[in-house]
Specification:
Oligomer: homodimer
Largest interface: A-B, 57 and 57 residues
Strand content of chain A: 15-25%
Shape of chain A: globular
CATH topology of chain A: TIM Barrel
Order of helices and strands of chain A: HEHEHHEHEHEHEEHEHEHEHH
Radius of gyration of chain A: 18 Å
Largest sheet of chain A: 8 strands, parallel, barrel
Number of helices of chain A: 12
Distance between the termini of chain A: 22 Å
Number of strands of chain A: 10
Helix content of chain A: 40-55%
CATH superfamily of chain A: Aldolase class I
Number of domains of chain A: 1
CATH architecture of chain A: Alpha-Beta Barrel
Structural class of chain A: alpha/beta
Chain lengths: ~270, ~270
């Protein structure tokens, strides 16, 4: 999917909501556990109930890998279901991969070709030759971790190198990489005040912003400092939406939560 | 596996060789492609031919994920085969994972519980709360990326924060984390001269050293600066061993290359 197609979808739906599909068997409604593939059935119900309210879905691969081959099958069925039924929805494999060159190419093939995701999240620690193999895929997007939403972000990301924080070096340096136009960035909503500085370095890029809701980030603040003329934001909510309910009505409850966020977004747009 | 068991295996085999199982269908002998699971058959033959020469096997997950569910099955069969037939061999899931707390726990479950690996490689960019969930598993080892073997290591890892490089901050900070005794570190052989400084910060820890062979690192140099009284080194070679031959004799050729390295190691020990 091109960035222009993503922006068009945002304008049409008046939403820049991304729903995180982080499915934990211990947290989903009990009645689903009797089905053959509870994780996929949960996702399918959430997707059916929310696809008109969001522009992106983001399965976090950890929650699928934890169940081995069965989990990987649920992930495959989920991405196929989205691509077949809602081809205009942007898909993110939240995998936080990154390795030396030839190995990153294998990860890129796994997510862009084998699973047909539109994008994948990538960790920057190993530098240029670990990220450029992902960027080589045209109309696929590499979402680089810049400033994450967790407390550990202050361990290394905000340390200062030559008066500038490590995450700013990541932003600046990544702009020089080949096919940098395929980059987006992860910036946590819990650090909204940093967005002003970040927008000075990467005014045009899309930002994937986790941490609104369960982690305490504030939507208005993120938009105030992070929005650009093409919107430039995908706001993710996972637990706050998908676990809103815990009985037969869970999908309806999820849709209600998604609608709350979408209606706030439509006012801002 | 405990560190003591690993050290005992090293002493007994006079080897601290780790063999990387980075299996690319385009590179394995053509006659294997007719079999039902060529990746597993390749690994099985390599393991059968080399298990007496090495103390660790390290499948890089990218090479399995690239083939989707089929690849994940090959990975599962490979780790089961090692654990059943060679329980004294240390196993490393080279996965370079890392995410916010609850998500890292899911990754830890995937590799430590579902697949029964002894260890997993983890990226440090997201800090303490992204790594500690892995460290919580007793007798399992978390191998943190410190200074990697690729050119991109110079993009961020060697940048200086308060006169000290980022990777040294990673080493120092990680020592303060809960269950830090379960940490090992990745240090590339292509940067052997850095090992002296690194050993001042983490004298006791095991180092996983990739980059000997195909990437140009030198075994003697690595041992000179990196070895400690418990050996403290796992030297990895992947392509240099597993692709030594390309016909029916590939496993024998691989064993020959592994034996060359092991005999150099036995002299050093």
């Amino acid at each position: 999917m091109t960035t222009e197609q993503l922006v068009a979808e945002i304008r049409q739906k008046k939403s820049f909501l991304c729903i995180g599909l982080d499915v934990d068997l211990n947290k989903i409604p009990k009645h689903l556990l009797a089905l053959e593939d509870p994780i996929f059935e949960f996702n399918k119900a959430i997707i059916d109930a929310t696809h008109h309210l969001c522009v992106a879905y983001k399965p976090n691969t950890a929650f699928y890998e934890a169940y081995g081959i069965k989990g990987w099958k649920s992930l495959e069925k989920t991405i196929q279901y989205i691509n077949e039924n809602h081809p205009n929805i942007f898909t993110i494999a939240d995998a936080k991969r990154g390795d030396i060159g030839n190995t990153s190419t294998m990860y890129a093939k796994a997510f862009f070709e084998d699973l047909s995701f539109d994008s994948v999240t990538v960790a920057p620690y190993m530098g240029k030759d670990s990220v450029e193999p992902f960027l080589a895929f045209e109309d696929k997007h590499t979402i680089l971790l810049a400033l994450t939403s967790n407390a550990g972000a202050f361990d290394f990301q905000t340390q200062k190198v030559d008066e500038k924080e490590v995450y700013k070096h990541v932003l600046n340096t990544s702009k020089t990489w080949k096919n940098a136009h395929n980059l987006m960035y992860v910036v946590g909503a819990t650090k909204a005040e940093y967005l002003k500085d970040i927008r000075e370095i990467i005014p045009e890029s899309f930002l994937l912003v986790p941490g609104v809701g369960a982690q305490g980030g504030n939507l208005q603040e993120v938009c105030k400092y992070g929005m650009n003329s093409s919107v430039g934001l995908l706001i993710n909510s996972s637990r706050g939406i998908i676990y809103a309910g815990n009985d037969e009505n869970f999908a309806k409850e999820a849709a209600k939560k998604a609608e709350e966020l979408q209606s706030q977004m439509s006012i801002i747009l």
